Amino acid sequence: MIYVQENTIHTSKENISYQYARFLNQKVKYDADVLGEYINFIQTDNDLAAQFQEGNKKEIFASMEGLYKRLNRDIDVTHMYFIRTDGTVLLRVHDYNRDNDVIERETFKKAKETQKLVHGLEFGLKMNYTLRVVKPWYVNGKLIGYIEVGKEIDKIIDEYAHLLGNNVYIAIKKDIYRDAPDFVQSNLKRNCLVDDYYIAYNTFAIPPQMGSILNGSIEHQDISFQNHEYYVSKIDFSDFSKKKLGYIVFFQDVSIEHNAMYSSVKALIIMLILISSIFFILGYKLIRRKEKNINALTSVLNEQKEELFHASQKLQKLFDLQKNIIILTDGKKLNMANQSMLDFFGFEDLGHFLQHYNCICERFIEDDTFFHLGKVPNGENWVETLNHLSPENRIVAIYDKDNKTHVFSISLNEFEDERFVVAFADISNTMRDQIKLIQKVTHDKLTGAFNREFLDNSIHDIIREIEPNHLGVIMCDIDYFKRVNDTFGHNRGDEVLKEFAATVQKSIRNEDYLIRWGGEEFIVLVKVDTIESLQIIAEHIRTAVQNTYFEEVEKITASLGVTLFQENETILACIAKADKALYTAKANGRNQIQVYEFLE
Prior knowledge:
The protein has helices spanning 2-43, 46-54, 57-75, 106-114, 154-164, 182-189, 210-215, 255-292, 297-320, 339-345, 350-354, 382-387, 428-442, 452-466, 481-488, 490-507, 531-546, 571-587, 596-599; strands at 79-83, 89-92, 118-123, 129-139, 142-152, 167-173, 197-202, 220-225, 228-238, 244-253, 325-329, 334-337, 395-399, 405-414, 420-426, 470-478, 513-518, 521-528, 558-564, 593-595. By secondary structure, the protein is an alpha+beta fold. The strands form four sheets. It has a five-stranded antiparallel β-sheet, with helices on both faces. It has a five-stranded antiparallel β-sheet with strand order 7-6-10-9-8. Strands 12-11-15-14-13 form a five-stranded antiparallel β-sheet. Strand 9 (228-238) and strand 10 (244-253) form a beta hairpin. Helix 1 (2-43) packs antiparallel against helix 8, helix 8 (255-292) runs antiparallel to helix 9 (297-320) and helix 15 crosses helix 16.
């Protein structure tokens, strides 16, 4: 029983580190795709290519400064390089006065070797961990150089650490910082509490056990620190070259769970001692009676049966002390169940339950998010299938007596005669937190519109839903929005963004998608038959915005660029087309619609 409870606590916490790593990888992949599309857009500028080949650093900077500031504001871009074919830097847009040094990073070397777009995470000169996207630049089939765009990922790590509610540490091997500038090493030495590692990032005090956590081979363990119990897990931290830099360490407070477990363990030990004492006394009495009178054996055996029956009842009560649902089964027959299960389903006793159901598994909800009977292969029963699954996949949803859905994490322990003790730990609150997390991850906090993560994760499903119709892409941008912030302040600017999103949402259909792309830019995805019907929808949006009264600001307008998604292109390439049409609408006087297909 101790193992069951400890395993239940760990099972509910282990998924956090895996989920964190998955979110981080998805975010890096998504940002790399976005930066790659912007590099493609830059390399289509023939005038810029000519300036680069002439080595005209000043003109390139004049051309790119505005775009760099926009990318820095909207998507946190922190680096933009123009690199010659020999690897020397012609221009750092983010640091104009530094040039002519040679780039030795692995991402650049790989792009030079393969002559393809390459992205990866690497340390820079200041030892900041940065996503770098590098692409060769060809003009008329001739390589003229390379463009690199990058962004530091500290904000990404901090964002997800906050959302998951964990204490996070990033530990980097000391030899990684061997060539770092003095000011970097000086800052890190303040957190040098471990022999072989610097703590480069932390959201909580560094415990004295950190050295054994980092140097040990155990990936998961429990520690005590500052009068709290923590469940510690770690994952490898590597760069683009697959070189292991150190670890990301997660601390999750499990004090409440452990206190409850220890109380339960104390009660269990007392009961076991009492039961053991009872059996010892009974055995002693039986032996003494057998020695005195063999003829009394029958009555003694009957008495023993009665005592065993009472002991069985006491054991049942012991099981009933557990708050988790606990059953004994071979997957076909339900042999024992505790009171928590009967209360959950609203039955008086096990016999009453078995009059309605043969197995608890019949109450599993068929939802592909969770395990259910539809996932059991032919020739197996549900317990056999669960026993082969990893802990994070042993999750089921069950209706209670009031038809309310609960989510349980299942742990199994082999008992005897191919039977298992199966424990169901209610993790409904944890799952609701994860659902809330998904809501946060997929929606823009300010406007309530969908965000980029939603687009990245859902675009393939959206395209399938729309088929055989066409996917129309509308990019909207509020005209002169900077004036709103400068004149009325950023708080009023935020209110304008919320009112603008609400206006657009009211002017489109329930089946359409409104996505905040960045700053004052929004994307609308709609199902249409022709480019003309897409224009009509865009005009409806433009008119709605123009006719809406915005408090204090009174009137604003919007410019829109529209295009149709083609089967042979990526969604980011399609958005780039709509962005080009939007740029034309801005250049032609704003408060208008431009169609990419009509610009060709």
